[in-house]
């Protein structure tokens, strides 16, 4: 199951993805 879905890969999206992944969430960009 996916914890975080990020639509778009701009600076803010990638920063959010990295932060969520470091916190242990399953992330899809």
Nutshell version of this structure?
41% of the residues lie in helices and 14% in strands.
Oligomeric state, counting identical vs distinct chains? single chain
Distance between the termini: 14 Å
Helix proportion of residues, in percent? 40-55%
Average residue-wise pLDDT? 95
Please state how the strands of the largest beta sheet are arranged side by side: 1-2
DSSP, total strands: 2
Largest sheet: 2 strands, parallel
Strand pairing plus helix content: what structural class?
Answer: alpha+beta
Could you characterize what this model shows?
This protein has 29 residues and is an alpha+beta fold. The chain has one domain (1-29). Helices cover 41% and strands 14% of the residues. The chain has one helix and two strands; from the N terminus they run E-H-E. The chain has one helix at 11-22, and strands at residues 4-5, 27-28. The chain has a two-stranded parallel sheet with strand order 1-2.
Fold topology:
Elements lengths: L3 E2 L5 H12 L4 E2 L1
Main features:
29 residues, alpha+beta, two-stranded parallel ribbon, flat
């Amino acid at each position: 199951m996916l914890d975080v879905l990020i639509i778009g890969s701009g600076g803010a999206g990638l920063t959010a993805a990295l932060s969520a992944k470091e916190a242990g969430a399953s992330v899809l960009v």
